[in-house]
Amino acid sequence: MHLKNISLTTEGLNIEFQNGAKDCFPYLWLRDHCKDVENWDERSNQRKLFTALVDPNIQIEETKIIEDNKTVEVKWPDMSKTVHYSGDFLYKNSLVNTSLVSDKILWDKKTINNVELEIKFDELAKDEGFKNLLQTIKIYGFSIINNCPTEIKTVEYIANKIGYVRNSIFGDLWSFESNTEMADSAYTQEELRPHTDGTYNHDAPGLQLLLCCEYEAEGGESIMVDGFKIAQILKENDKISFDTLSEIDIPGRYYGDGVELIAKRPVFKSRNQELIQVSFNNYDRGDFRLPNNRIHDFYTAIRKFDKLANDKEMQWRQILKPGQLLIFNNWRVLHGRSEFTGKRKMSGCYINKEDFESVCRINSV
Ligand SMILES: [Fe+2]
């Protein structure tokens, strides 16, 4: 971004960008963001400056625009050399830069389309195919990878392309058939109502991968529901329930197999008014007591959420066949499975949210 004008004021450095946007950058903030060799380690990309030792009332001594209006040169009183700030850097950090648009498309049964969701396993080896996968997960919250080799190594290969396999109480890579020995409801053949995993983790798994390795069964449809769509509907139609699910910290609990994990957060977790995570798992909800005057609103809100999550008009449903892998954002999309009879063998793993975000950044997705 090119720069048009700059001026020093008592508040900070006033900047007018080429597109007419104006912002005032406080001096202390600018001093803290010096990216020269004295203040910044280029090899490790870490701050060298001891910010706490900078004079809180520091001011710029001299400044000018250089390099074809793309850079601001600054002379600070506590440094011998001048420091450069690029127009792009300043604009990126400007409070008036509102170019950040949501890259999510919220969906329901009518608006979700398999053509946009499906990717062939072979395509992941190419840059374009891999970026396509990342983009699809970013936009819709999930993707289906077809023609996968039906072995656990496939899960590992895809996970390692994105980040790394996350270890948990279930191990790193897992395989399961219906197994009544395990404590978790995921091992039964009964209906699994839509939920998110890891409500008992402070940092819930970011992505989940589920590969169908064998299917000799009746039923067992995989179910995906856009939790962000549920949030949108409740926000527009039932503000009390939306607020209730945004405010009340609900404990998730995993007790068994030698551990007792507990974490708490609201169903709708937001930051600066922006929804960042949906967490809902009625199976794993721990015991907790609200003041009596909140009980009614809480159960009403849970009921409304559950009704929407189980409304077939809100769901994508499909029986996964051997070689199909479902990969989904566990911070957004709820997953479930209809009941089945017969044999169904799945393999899967978790990936951390930050590692998915990282691979998206690195690939400019
Ligand atoms: Fe689950």
Structure description:
With 365 residues, the chain is an alpha+beta fold. It has 2 domains: 3-92, NE0471 N-terminal domain-like (2-Layer Sandwich), CATH 3.30.2020.30; 114-362, 4-Layer Sandwich (Double-stranded beta-helix). Helix content is 24%, strand content 33%. It contains 9 helices and 23 strands. The chain has helices spanning 27-32, 87-92, 114-117, 127-140, 152-162, 227-237, 239-247, 292-309, 353-362, and strands at 3-8, 12-17, 22-26, 40-41, 46-47, 62-66, 71-75, 83-86, 118-120, 142-146, 165-166, 174-176, 192-195, 207-219, 222-226, 250-256, 259-265, 268-271, 274-278, 315-318, 325-329, 333-337, 340-351. Strands 9, 10, 11, 12, 14, 21 and 23 form a 7-stranded mixed β-sheet that branches. Strands 13-22-15-20 form a 4-stranded antiparallel β-sheet. It starts with a strand and ends with a helix. The structure holds fe (ii) ion. Residues 186, 195, 197, 335 line the site of fe (ii) ion.
CATH homologous group name of the largest domain:
Clavaminate synthase-like
Mean pLDDT: 95
**How much of the polypeptide forms β-strand, as a percent range?**
25-35%
Fraction in helix:
10-25%
The overall number of domains is 2
CATH class of the largest domain: Alpha Beta
Radius of gyration (Å): 25 Å
Shape: globular
Named CATH architecture of the largest domain: 4-Layer Sandwich
Question: Helix/strand-derived class?
Answer: alpha+beta
Low-pLDDT stretches are none
The major sheet is characterized as: 7 strands, mixed
